[in-house]
Amino acid sequence: MKINDKEIDGIIFDLDGTLFDSCSMWHQIDIDFFKKRGMIIPNDYAEAIAHLGLKKAASYTKCRFNFPETVEEIIKEWNDAAIYQYTNNVVLKPYAYEYLEYLKKNGVKLGIATANSSEYYMPCLKKNKIDHFFDYICDVSGFKGSKESPDIYLFTASKLGVSIEKCAVFEDIVQAIKTAHNAGFYTVAVDDETQKSYIEAKKQNSDLFIKSYKELLE
């Protein structure tokens, strides 16, 4: 199958902000977290933690703001709010289901590489009825907790049995887009309502920028 004349055998998807329409939910959790402590969320905070796993994000948050809570207590507070949202309210981005269905019908191997935790994403994948589309699912828990290294993409591609040259990575975060692109993957940057200020950076660091999956179905 081709994406913009590029022959593709496999695709690795991020979840939050890429397939899941969940970034605004996470942003609200962050707003509530800081509001509870009498603070306004810093403008650079969301981007600073977006490519980190949960434990690294909690550690970063504690160290940067010198909060008295332990890393474990911060994680639990986020967990309680997030699990409810993922299980009940988070939906897919428009036309994401249709695009995944199209890819499977065309024999494309599909994987997930996420900084999310399985206790969040598995209920959401099942609720939105897309878990069966994927040949392999991987999160950063076994890869030092971030996407600053391409290891998670390289590992997932190997599990899919596809070469880097014929594997695309769909991401919404600039750092992750850069990581995948620099590793040799064909990178597709996905727009998100919470990241409008990063559109140009996404375009500059990817092979293709899309506002909607509908563009890839036309």
Would you write up a description of this structure?
This protein has 218 residues and is an alpha/beta fold. It has 2 domains: 2-22 and 91-216, HAD superfamily/HAD-like (Rossmann fold, 3-Layer(aba) Sandwich), CATH 3.40.50.1000; 23-88. The protein is 43% helix and 14% strand. It is built from 9 helices and 8 strands. The strands form 2 sheets. Strands 5-4-3-6-7-8 form a 6-stranded parallel β-sheet, with helices on both faces. Strands 1-2 form a two-stranded antiparallel sheet. The longest helix has 18 residues, at 71-88. The protein is globular, with a radius of gyration of 17 Å. The two termini are 14 Å apart. The mean pLDDT is 94.
In short:
This protein is α/β, with parallel strands linked by helices and 218 residues long. It has helices at 23-35, 45-49, 54-65, 71-88, 96-105, 118-127, 151-160, 174-182, 199-205, and strands at residues 2-3, 6-7, 10-13, 109-114, 136-139, 167-171, 186-190, 208-210. The chain is built from nine helices and eight strands.
Order of helices and strands: EEEHHHHHEHEHEHEHE
Total number of distinct structural domains: 2
Q: How much strand content do the residues show? A: 5-15%
Radius of gyration: 17 Å
> Structural class of the secondary elements?
alpha/beta
| CATH first level of the largest domain | Alpha Beta
| CATH-defined topology of the largest domain | Rossmann fold
Uncertain spans, ≥5 residues at pLDDT below 50? none
Gross geometry:
globular
CATH architecture of the largest domain: 3-Layer(aba) Sandwich
Strand order of the largest sheet: 5-4-3-6-7-8
Average pLDDT across residues? 94
What is the percent of helical residues?
A: 40-55%
Please give the largest β-sheet.
6 strands, parallel
